[in-house]
Amino acid sequence: MLAASLRSVWRPGRPVDLRHTLGPLHRGCARLRFAGPTVLWATRTLDGPATVALHSVGATVEAEAWGPGAERLLAHVPVLLGRDDDWSGLDLTDAPALAEVRRRYPGMRLPATGQVFEELVPVVLEQRVTGMQARRSWRELLHRFGDPAPGPDPSLRVPPRAEVLLDVTTWQWHRLGVEQQRQRPIRAAATVAGRLDSLEPASAGAGLRTLPGIGVWTAAEVAQRAFGDPDAVSVGDFHVHDLVVFALTGRPRGTDDEMLDLLEPWAGQRQRIVRLIELSGVRKPRFGPRYSPLDIRAM
Predict the structure, then answer these.
(1) In the chain, what's the furthest Cα-to-Cα distance?
(2) 6-87: what fold?
(3) Most CB contacts within 10 A, which of 17, 38, 222, 241?
(4) Are 77 and 251 within 8 A, CB to CB?
(5) 183/173 Cα distance (integer angstroms)
(6) Using CA atoms, how far apart are residues 283 and 195, in angstroms rounded to an integer?
(7) What is residue 285's predicted lDDT score, i.e. its pLDDT?
(8) Rounded to an integer, what distance in angstroms lies between the CA atom of residue 24 and that of residue 78?
(9) Dihedral pair phi/psi, residue 223, rounded to 5°
(10) Residue extents of the structural domains in the chain
C-alpha cells in the first residue's frame, strides 16, 4: 500500500517549464523521471528520504510528496524550480538569437536543489570519462547502494548516505567503473558531507576546492545545480568552450580563455547564457572518429 502523501500548490505568477528547468539534474534518470507532464524527483533531506511529483498547469505548480522528508521537500519546491532565479536584468539586445531562445522558453529557470554533497558525487563521476560512462556509474551506484525512493515509482532511487559511500570498497568501485582517482574525492567529501551541505553559495566554491580532486570545473558544476548559480561557468569542460565559441562566433573550436572573453559582457549571468546556448540546439561541428572510451571494469 502506498504511504500517505502531502500536497502543496505554488503560484509564482509566471509560467514554469518543469522539463527544461530540471533537465540539468537528469543524470541517468535513476532519481529523476519525466513521466509525461509530471516530473518525479527523489532526494535525501535532513528529515529523511523523500520523493516529489511535480505537475505544472500554466502559472501553477501542483506538488505531491512522500516519505519522512516530504514536508521539508515541499517547502523547497519553489527554490528548486528557480523562485530566486531572476532573469529580468539579462540584456540580450546584442544577441538576438539568444533572445529568441529566451522567448521560446519563458518558463525555464536555473534549478537549485540545495544539496551540495548529493550533487557533488555524480559530478565527480563525470571527471575524465565520457557522459555515457559517468551516467552508467551513477545509475549503478544508486541501485546498489542507494535506497528505494518513497512514493509511486519503485524504480526511483534516493542517493546513498555519506556513511554508506565510505564503506564502498575499492573493488566495488572498480565494478562500477570508477578508478581510484575519482574514488578519492568522493571519500574525502563523504567524511565532511554535513559541512558541505551547510556551505553558503558565496563560499561554496572555495570550500569545495579544499578537498582533494575538486577543482574549478567540479565546483562550478555543483554550484550550478545545488545553488542555481547564474554565473558559474564550467571552465575545463571538454565540450562547453567549443559550444560557446561556435554559438557566438561561428568558429568550430575554442578555448576556455576565448569562452570567458566572449561571456564577459554578461558577467554575473554567464551560466544563463550557457544554458540558453544549450537550449538553442546549436551543436559544434565534429571532426575525426568518435572517441572509444576505456572500460576499466574489464581490466
Answers:
(1) 57
(2) TATA-Binding Protein (3.30.310)
(3) 222
(4) no
(5) 7
(6) 39
(7) 83
(8) 17
(9) -60, -35
(10) 6-87, 88-299
